[in-house]
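Researcher: Let's do a round of design. I'm pasting the structure tokens now; please hold your answer until I've finished.
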């Protein structure tokens, strides 16, 4: 992504990059089995990425707080940034934030704010949230002239998002930093454009703006393109567009083949090397924990279920990791979702020892076999259990009811047809 940002800047001087928050920490830090040491190390890598990408504005996300507000502040500050947190107050004076960031492009003044809903800092010691709309008003008053407002939002509910969208003020682009708010289709003309960030780490989203001085509203270009395809409303849409600033969103898929920045590549390789060593040593271990034994052991009693499982996508999860061009088969964080029990109490601790446990096996979804014979029955499968690996970061399109029928071991599957539709 750093290379993509540099490429865009090389093509035009009128480019600004905005980080919407939650860059240091992803939702994976909350998942079962997440390793604290690796979470911290990855946050350092992401802070280094920001240093290379040099965005005009960096927002502090609520997930970033998981590394600790003071630690997050240090990560940003040592890379030359002071993040935006418009309506969060911290008791620790070492935590440095600003209420807004402003800059100019081609004579237009942009202001970025970063707003949090009332539950965004629940459980974060020494952090409190003030009323977001009032904080926005104060930031805009302090900023002075504003031609375009960019508002990153975290943990907003529908009612709060609606208030923000309908608040008077300059034309704005509102970014749902969590990607959870259901963005409704706006009319062709609107003061507020609501958008979600792209899939984290896999897509690069741009907003091309064609600004009209003192225009109070936006016109979304995809509306006009849809009218052209339909061959209707062309005159009506053209008249609406003529009175507005224009905006067009584009999303670009990223892949490892596009990693062109040598500094970023160096840091990624250093992180992978660390993962293969220190991360494994830091993994929790409990000699008294029930031991994982592998799917073949389960098959001694559950022959039909084992055969059914072997026809599922889960049974080939390790193969997909081996084929990963980014070397996922040597990354403990990746291996933990493609091998049963890896780095879990009672599970294997070295990648070299994972052969009997490769794939998403019985014990990934149920329980280590050592707990089972003569013990409690297996718990029912739940959405929360599946999201241990199918998290909002790793698999944003995951739908439990849709996926379950492709993974169940209660019926046989046709391997050629057993693919989740995407």
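Researcher: That's everything. Go ahead.
Model: Designed sequence:
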């Amino acid at each position: 992504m750093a290379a993509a940002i540099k490429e865009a800047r090389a093509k035009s001087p009128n480019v600004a990059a905005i980080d919407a928050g939650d860059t240091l920490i992803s939702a994976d830090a909350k998942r079962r089995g997440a390793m604290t040491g690796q979470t911290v190390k990855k946050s350092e890598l992401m802070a280094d990425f920001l240093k290379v990408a040099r965005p005009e504005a960096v927002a502090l996300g609520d997930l970033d707080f998981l590394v600790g507000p003071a630690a997050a502040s240090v990560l940003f500050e040592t890379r030359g940034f002071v993040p935006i947190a418009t309506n969060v107050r911290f008791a620790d004076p070492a935590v440095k934030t600003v209420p807004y960031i402003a800059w100019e492009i081609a004579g237009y003044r942009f202001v970025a704010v970063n707003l949090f809903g009332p539950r965004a800092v629940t459980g974060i010691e020494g952090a409190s949230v003030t009323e977001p709309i009032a904080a926005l008003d104060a930031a805009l008053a302090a900023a002075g002239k504003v031609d375009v407002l960019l508002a990153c939002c975290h943990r907003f509910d529908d009612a709060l998002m609606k208030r923000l969208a309908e608040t008077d003020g300059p034309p704005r682009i509102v970014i749902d930093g969590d990607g959870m708010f259901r963005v409704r289709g706006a009319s062709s003309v609107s003061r507020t454009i609501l958008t979600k960030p792209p899939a984290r780490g896999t897509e690069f989203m741009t907003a091309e703006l064609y600004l009209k001085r003192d225009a109070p509203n936006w016109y979304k270009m995809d509306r006009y393109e849809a009218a052209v395809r339909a061959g209707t409303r062309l005159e009506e849409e053209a008249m609406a567009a003529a009175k507005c600033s224009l905006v067009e969103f584009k999303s670009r898929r990223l892949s490892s083949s596009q990693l062109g920045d040598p500094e970023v590549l160096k840091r990624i390789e250093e992180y992978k090397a660390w993962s293969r060593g220190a991360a494994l040593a830091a993994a929790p271990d409990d000699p008294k924990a029930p031991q994982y034994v592998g799917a073949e052991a389960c098959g001694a009693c559950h022959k039909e279920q084992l055969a059914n499982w072997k026809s599922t996508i889960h049974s080939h999860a390790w193969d997909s990791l081996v084929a990963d061009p980014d070397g996922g088969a040597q990354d403990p964080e990746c291996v933990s979702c493609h091998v049963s029990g890896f780095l879990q109490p009672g599970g294997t601790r070295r990648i070299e020892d994972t052969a009997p446990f490769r794939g998403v096996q019985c014990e990934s979804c149920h329980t280590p076999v050592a707990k089972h014979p003569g013990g409690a029955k297996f718990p029912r499968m739940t959405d929360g259990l599946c999201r241990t690996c199918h998290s909002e970061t790793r698999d944003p399109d995951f739908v439990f009811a849709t996926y379950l029928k492709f993974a169940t071991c209660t019926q046989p599957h046709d391997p050629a047809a057993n693919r989740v539709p995407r």
